[in-house]
Amino acid sequence: MTPNLQTLEALEGYILSLGYETGELKLFDLKPYLDHGVFTRLKDLKLFQRVRIAFDTVEWPGGIDLDPEVLYRDGILSQQNLTTESHASAEKSSKTLGCPRAPCLSQLPQEEKQGHESQADRHRPEGKSQAQAVGKPPQD
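Above: the chain's sequence. Below: its structure in token form.
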């Protein structure tokens, strides 16, 4: 079963930041979809940025949406991914340090950073940024 989607943010480069009830933060690259079907309309950045959570998935005006299982399965764990045990502490750190978004691991005390290396970082090809390593194009 796919965890409930709780937070959503449209980032630069057609990347969605997805926060799940499990404490996982995943990045989903929508660029491979932008040349297919209804997703071509999302090339309009203003429309892309109007994404919202609906029925545990993402949705744009006009009924454009994605399967929640695809988002979760193909999303890449973010470097900001936090376990539930350190989530409260990281939120406190982000407020103290003035981080405008979700807590960043770079802001955590060293002892809290250990064990938070994301799966995406361990498996990302060398020389590729996280955004370059995210997502697969849909099959026609």
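The two ends are 26 Å apart (CA to CA).
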